[in-house]
Write a structure and sequence with these properties.
The structure is a single chain. The protein has 641 residues and is α+β, with helices and mostly antiparallel strands. A 6-stranded mixed beta sheet has the order 7-8-6-9-10-11, with helices on both faces. The N and C termini lie far apart (80 Å). The structure holds guanosine-5'-diphosphate. Guanosine-5'-diphosphate (GDP) is lined by residues 158, 160-166, 258-259, 261-262, 294-296.
């Protein structure tokens, strides 16, 4: 091996290399400019060895703990140096039902630890910053003064055959964004059109699965939904699903009443049906915009685009083109020539060729950016969809894309996210258990006929209570399909199938997403299960059981946090190692615990009515003669419906 290449590998001069090698005991002839390979390896290894440094002894503050993104209850208790039962009790108090082997997330663990007097730091401070859920807050943290209007990102949704594809094609062909013709038009998952000098971005990912999928990952790409309803067919199950989902994600809807060219078209009926589902158009005294169109005959499209622009103006979509670069993967596939190819919608900042990017567990350098016409772009600003190549592996739809300074950093983040995703997946548990934090039981209800659907809904309404909300996210007649599963997966919900099957694709998806589909043939059993799920989500109440009372006759010693007193039991009994409530007249002034108890100078487990006692009490209250001590314990009591 050449000495010069070895020295450049080590980033030192040849002379330095010789000196250092000599100091390490290798001899390199002063005139030689080559050394043998095995010697080179040894020299390299010894010079790259990090100098050994004694680890500094950092005093550990016992009340400070570091928590990972997720931690098993058992490990958490160990970390806190508390009995598992105490930790579980604290969790229950905060509405979290977790067993010893289950994991709790960082936020939950933090609340519990703080409750127990610990100071918490995140073990993953740096990687947290890159977590998906933070995108919204990162966007919100952008400097308000630098925000400029950006095009709206619109998704077209609706029942099958109501004309979504026809509408997307009609908009695409009649409105060309850049004004230049030619170029290959490719489906990259989104395209932009220009109307009145303003851009609109349309997602043309078929179906709304992708939309739900993205939403689940905290990436809400869609600003606005155009809900297509065929004027001759009216509101159908998927129409209702879209309405429910838009409500769930708080996304504005514009109605496109399509196929008005048809003889059977009845736009008024469509509006009436929409009103029945809580979507009030202007005719019905509401604010939802409805536009009548014919996608097939290109009628009403201008109106629709204008309404989209108008709504966007009201909603005031903005981003900082010079801020942090963030985007979302909306499409992803492997191309023979280019390797992994993904379409990204930029949501903030500007993505440029050459940028180092990371998306979920994949990373890379942007090799090329292309628009939907196959035109090469140098950069893509907010709301711009661009197909990019350069990822190390295929990112997933919904992954958040961000730029970082170096490939090393990108690799490190991708690796952390890989781990994190894994533990997150472990954490998600399905089945009828609801979300104990939000206290909602999200249900996707499917039944054989409308009659049973109604009956189930009426019975569920009877389970209404103050603490847990039963939220029917979507309801419908027919088989359980893939979109039901996705909705369940993304809302931590449960699919309930009454006298109906689950189609094979949905069964597979359910397995993959760990969604359980609960099937019933008897309404009574269905209600029983839901009732028990609701009851499990109730925060148990602490029930105080009083053992007895005694009066303080003498205070012997007062120390910080501990007092020794003498007194007399005048009701029931007082028990050692149990808490006491300290009463001064009618007022409870504090609490403590009996740590030592004596009767006639002999240690006792309890003292009973009429007996005199001496005791040591752990308390922060300064006890005085005349105070009443109430011995009690608290039990958790599960509420019922
Ligand atoms: P999608 O399933 O919602 O994407 O619906 P398509 O766009 O595939 O349309 C379903 C059928 O309705 C096709 O045969 C279309 O030609 C037809 N269609 C769509 N829009 C219109 C319209 O405005 N008028 C009429 N008469 N037919 C339409």
């Amino acid at each position: 091996m050449n000495l010069s290449s070895l020295s450049s590998q080590l980033n030192i001069s040849i002379q330095e290399l010789r000196d250092k090698a000599k100091a390490k005991g290798f001899s390199i002839s002063p005139r030689a400019n080559k050394i043998d390979n095995s010697l080179a390896k040894q020299v390299l290894a010894s010079l790259q060895e990090a100098p050994k440094v004694e680890a500094p002894a950092i005093p550990v503050d016992p009340t400070k703990i570091k928590l990972p993104g997720y931690i098993k209850v058992r490990d958490f208790a160990l970390l806190l140096d508390k009995p598992v039962t105490e930790v579980i009790k604290a969790l229950i108090k905060n509405g979290v039902m977790a067993t010893i082997n289950e994991e709790v997330d960082f936020e939950t663990a933090t609340i519990i630890a703080q409750d127990l007097g610990f100071e918490v730091e995140s073990e993953e401070e740096s990687s947290q910053e890159y977590s998906i859920g933070n995108m919204q807050s990162e966007l919100a943290a952008e400097n308000q003064d630098e925000l400029v209007p950006r095009p709206p990102i619109v998704a077209i949704m609706g029942h099958v055959d109501h004309g979504k594809t026809t509408l997307l094609d009609a908009i695409r062909t009649t409105n060309v964004a850049s004004g230049e013709s030619g170029g290959i038009t490719q489906h990259i998952g989104a395209y932009q059109v220009k109307k009145n000098g303003k851009l609109i971005t349309f997602l043309d990912t078929p179906g709304h699965e992708a939309f739900v999928e993205m939403r689940a990952r905290g990436a809400n790409v869609t600003d606005l939904i155009v809900l297509v309803v065929a004027a001759d067919d009216g509101v159908r199950p998927q129409t209702i699903e879209v309405i429910n989902r838009a409500k769930f994600t708080n996304t504005p809807i514009i109605i496109a009443i399509n196929k008005i060219d048809k003889e059977a078209a009845n736009p008024m009926r469509v509006k009436q049906e929409l009103a029945e589902h809580g979507l009030l158009t202007e005719d019905w005294g509401g604010k939802t915009v409805a536009v009548e169109i014919s996608a097939k005959q290109n009628k009403g499209l201008d109106d629709l685009l204008e309404m989209i622009l108008l709504t966007s103006e009201v909603e005031n979509y903005k981003a900082n083109p010079n801020g942090k670069t963030l985007g979302t993967v909306i499409e992803s596939h492997t191309s023979l020539g280019q390797g992994s190819v993904s379409t990204v919608i930029v949501q903030s900042g500007t993505l440029k060729v050459g940028d180092v990017i990371v998306a979920g567990a994949s990373f890379g350098r942007v090799k090329s950016l292309e628009d939907e016409k196959g035109k090469k772009l140098k950069q893509a600003g907010p709301s711009t969809p661009a197909q990019i190549s350069g990822f190390s592996e295929l990112p997933e739809v919904g992954d958040i894309v961000r730029t970082v300074a170096t490939l090393e950093e990108a690799r490190a983040i991708a690796t952390t996210l890989q781990k994190k995703n894994r533990s997150h997946k472990l954490q998600i548990k399905r089945g009828l258990q609801g979300d104990a934090n939000s206290k909602t039981l999200n249900i996707i209800l499917k039944a054989d006929v409308a009659g049973s659907l109604e009956a189930i809904k009426q019975s569920l309404a009877k389970l209404k209570n103050d603490e847990v909300t039963i939220n029917i996210l979507s309801e419908g007649v027919g088989e359980v399909n893939e979109s039901d599963i996705l909705l369940a997966a993304n809302s931590q919900g449960t699919v309930i199938a009454f006298n109906t099957k689950t189609n094979p694709k949905a069964i597979n998806l359910a397995k993959q997403k760990q969604v359980s589909v609960d099937s019933y043939e008897v309404i009574y059993e269905l209600l029983e299960d839901i009732t028990s799920a609701v009851v499990k989500m109730f925060t148990p109440e602490l029930e105080k059981v009083s053992f007895g009372k005694g009066k303080i006759l003498q205070v012997f010693r007062t120390e910080k946090g501990e007092m020794i007193i003498g007194g007399n039991v005048n009701e029931g009994e007082l028990r050692k190692n149990k808490p006491i409530a300290i009463w001064r007249g009618e007022e409870e002034v504090g609490r403590g615990e009996i740590v030592d108890l004596q009767h006639n100078k002999v240690a006792a487990k309890e003292v009973t009515n009429g007996q005199e006692f001496g005791m040591k009490i752990k308390t922060n209250v300064k006890l005085v003669v005349g105070d009443t001590l109430e011995s009690f314990e608290e039990n958790l009591k599960q509420k019922t419906l």
